[in-house]
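protien #1 (seq + structre)
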Amino acid sequence: MALFNEIPLTDKDYFRAVVLYGANVASYKFALAESIIGIAAEGKDFATLTDLALPFSDALCRHLGIQDKQTTSRTSRFLDMLRGFNLGKIDIDEKIDSTVRLGFVNVIDAFHVVHAKEIPIRFFHDERKSPQPGIRLTDELLEMAADIENKDLLKETESRWRLVETAWRYNMPRRLITVDYDKGLESFFVTDSKERRHSVTNARYALNGYQRGKCFYCNRQVHLEDWRLLEQRGEVDHVFPHILQRNGEVDVDLDQAWNLVLACNKCNGSGGKRDHCPDISYVEDLHHRNENLIMSHHPLRESIIVRTGKVSSDRKTFLNGCYKIAKRSLIHGWRTDRLQ
């Protein structure tokens, strides 16, 4: 019987968990995540509430300009103040003052909570009750922000934010909206009731967090911003090769989130999987990845459910069916060495 191995979690894993799986009742968590990474990247270990208010409110104002609905609540005095700033009704000093008074009421307390429980590490400590109110950034955050991957984390946070606000825009789950993939642009988009396409986010960043920044096949680190190491460049790949759809072997759309993963250039390139059938172990990994993504409530979740099945057993049967077709059609299987 195969044994399950304990997976050690890194600081980045915990940060991604906050962004990907924390409760989504407002977009403040995303703005705070982006703000603390930016402050930490400057080497600062403390931020007053005034210091924090500038990047925090700037991020929210920017997204209010993209999508006005930024919370599940019907009203928000704080967001109304930021809307007023965008319309030129208040100046920057009033915006900062409003953010200090209203913007951090719940988000600082709730930031480290995932699935109703606090994660075991902290990225900042709350010092709002000290003589100089603010937050103290931890060594874990400072070291993470100094790493080359901090730009990837910022883009992942931005992608997650865009997906969540898309769900809010279309009143998920009351109205089912699914996300499609544009292979040429490597981006996700939705189509509204008037058949107009609306771009959501870059697919590479949306997928990266759910793979912990690793290649789906070999488990090596992939980079989305720094492409100096070509073999470690993160690229979107179809687990079941697109040739199956082009040749009419399958009657399902392979250009969908359930079949898309992030792979390094070595595995995705000329010496990699190409048009071979994925090893059955990768099909199992794909099922687990999809189930993991479904735990995160946004349109990618709905897209996977509507196309592969309402319950986990149906989704597993769906993937097994795809595997049987791929194996019979492509004959040759492929797998590579996997780092532990």
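ok now protien #2
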Amino acid sequence: MNAFVLVKHSDGPQAFELRELDDPEPGKGEARIAVDTFGLNFADVMASLGLYRDAPPLPAVLGYDVVGRIDKLGIGLKGFREGMRVVAMTRFGGYATEAIATSNGMCEIPDDFDAASATALSTQFVTAWYAAKEMICLQAGDRVLIHAAAGGVGGALVQIAKQSGCTVFGTTGSAWKMKHLEELGVDYPLCTAAQDFEKAYRSADGTKPLDVIFDSIGGASVRKGLRLLGSGGRLVSYGVADMMGGAHNLPRSLRTILSFGFPHPVFLLMQSKSLIGVNMLRIADDRPDIIRRCLKEVVARGVKGDLRPVVDKALSSCEFARGFESLRKRETAGKVTVHW
């Protein structure tokens, strides 16, 4: 098989090499997928910089989401067949022409369903659905702040929050993405390029406290977010994008970690606030039933058109480096996919 292999931790195109590797063999309860399209995720950018501790050792094949057809079944796999078209969540290994997935991480999709959109439904929409519907259970009337609302997970959260009847505040660090946030349905787009998001929120419609915050930034963003929550408020932390640029930079990494603050349980108890951490890799490892349930739900809604993934770039494999660089520089608004 062919695969884009991470060979060194770097912020440039030299981090990856296209290599020919042996085809993987599916184990018990697994399937091998002939990959048509795979997705790029921000966690891959963190891994390429050496900032994602769960990433496999170098040389490594990254990638969490693929679309293709099953070409080999492992022992004991039921409910799937060779030739079936599926969207799948992989535990790395997605940047290849052959990838392995378990039954919990696969879902059949129609032959005419767009591959790029289907790819976006897996990792990003599953993350958003789990955070918004299972960890939070959004209610109509909730005031919700979504950081990086123009990104893949952020955009999915916007859709879910709007469909739940919430008032949505969405942040972006790029002024050109403000129109995109409006098109997504964000009620109050907030540009953080010129001012701190806390100030931006208070100047927009910050007379009332927030009910929910979805935070992929980390660091001081979490500490400030807790201040904006009212009684019963919940903050979901699912990323540390603030650590970008901290590869091999221990002082910066430590600053980011320390800037989270130290929210004491007594403080949370007295003010009736919740701080929730979400790591989908841990959920996939320890509670695969949750992945299966969420994946089936978002795929069913995507096929019906209730959820509409936004694809920023659907590139060919020869454009892989350009797509990854665009994601790293935060020049995208939506999903980036690569077609072999």
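The chain has a mean pLDDT of 91.
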